[in-house]
Write a structure and sequence with these properties.
With 335 residues, the protein is α+β, with helices and mostly antiparallel strands. It has eleven helices and 13 strands. The chain binds adenosine-5'-diphosphate and magnesium ion.
């Protein structure tokens, strides 16, 4: 069946039926606005991301369900980077009238599954017909105790820089897809179904361990650049400390230029954060309890946004803080 045969309101009814109930949702789907509760003493944190067909995803490479999961995950990653607890989500959905209902239902399944995984309620959205590409616009809301959220601007000279997980997998997965090559399952999963580091972000924030934090969506160098400019800092990174997956490292050994993907490739959705040096062991213990790998990759200095990379020759080499820019994309870049 096509979406056009079902119609907007029957689709919204289906979404409402599947969205479930939650005591914090006073009014959810079905009214003119959602009415929601957040815990006393908490502040509201909100974030939004667009996903556009042929810019952010292709149905040749993904399906409705994985797309739905990713649309939620990339939004939750932004809240994780503030140390917030995600609570509510809104789904703006625009797709052509001749879209297969099965694909739309798959998308919903993915959205709801990822919401459930992180204790988030789908409380509203908007649905309209697109004359062309699919467009998903997701808004996520969360909360953090007053004074406990972590911004990009709190880094201090001599703080250590740490990152969760591994770098460059998503960009390498995408580049293999674009070349029509075989993509190792981990790289494919890292590109099509990233895991937001929600528990780690919350734990770092509630323990007051991270001085500054950002999620890596545009590439390590670009997102580190944001953190540095916000804090009037420079950074020194250590090439040998950049965490790489076995799959990435295997290809990197025969193609050293792939390091550009670890530095500038987007969509890692890992957390990059700074910590006082004496707090680093506590961070490592906490991350181990959450089964999230973390690595020390460098250090902050007073400055104005410059990044230097210590390479195998022991020398420091400047790294440009560029990554993906939607309006100034370079050949080979990806969102
Ligand atoms: P309005 O015309 O007042 O904007 P709509 O008919 O667009 O109302 O939406 C009716 C209800 O359904 C609202 O609560 C809205 O938040 C919800 N809704 C609409 N589209 C979606 C969607 N794609 N996902 C979740 N909720 C939706
Ligand atoms: Mg509406």
């Amino acid at each position: 069946m096509r979406l056009g045969e079902l119609g907007e309101f029957k689709l919204i009814d289906r979404i409402k039926q599947q969205a479930g109930l939650n005591p914090d949702v006073i009014r959810g789907i079905g009214d003119d606005a959602a009415e929601l509760k957040i815990p006393a003493g908490h502040h509201l944190l909100t974030s939004t991301d667009l996903l556009i067909e042929e810019v952010h995803f292709r149905f040749a490479w993904t399906d409705g369900e994985r797309l739905g999961r990713k649309a939620v995950a990339v939004n939750l990653s932004d809240l994780a980077a503030m140390g917030a607890t995600p609570r509510f989500l809104y789904l703006g959905l625009s797709c052509p009238a001749d879209s297969e209902l099965e694909r739309v239902e798959g998308l919903l399944r993915g959205v709801l599954a990822e919401c459930e995984r992180f204790g988030v309620s789908l409380v509203g959205g908007d649905t309209c017909c697109s004359p062309g590409p699919w467009i998903l616009s997701v808004v996520v809301e969360g909360s953090a105790p007053d004074g406990r959220s972590v911004g990009r601007n709190g880094g201090r000279p001599d703080d250590l820089l740490m990152v969760s997980g591994t770098l460059g997998d998503s960009a390498l997965g995408l580049s293999l897809l674009q070349k029509g090559k075989v993509v190792p399952p981990l790289l494919l999963q890292r590109h099509l179904a990233p895991t937001p580091r929600v528990a780690l972000g919350q734990a770092l924030a509630s323990a007051g361990l991270a001085s500054a934090m950002i999620d890596i969506s545009d590439g390590l160098a670009a997102d580190l650049g944001h953190l540095l400019r916000a804090g009037r800092l420079d950074a020194e990174l250590d090439l040998a400390s950049l965490p790489l997956s076995t799959e990435f490292a295997g290809q990197y050994r025969s193609n050293p230029s792939l390091i550009d993907l670890a530095l500038h490739g987007g969509e890692d959705y890992e957390l990059l954060f700074s910590v006082a040096e004496d707090a680093a062991p506590t961070v490592e213990r906490l991350a181990a309890e959450l089964a999230v790998p973390v690595s020390r990759i460098g250090r902050l200095k007073a400055g104005s946004g410059a990044i230097d990379l210590r390479e195998a020759d022991g020398q420091l080499h400047p790294v440009t803080a560029d990554g993906f820019d939607h309006f100034a994309s370079r050949v080979g870049d990806q969102p």
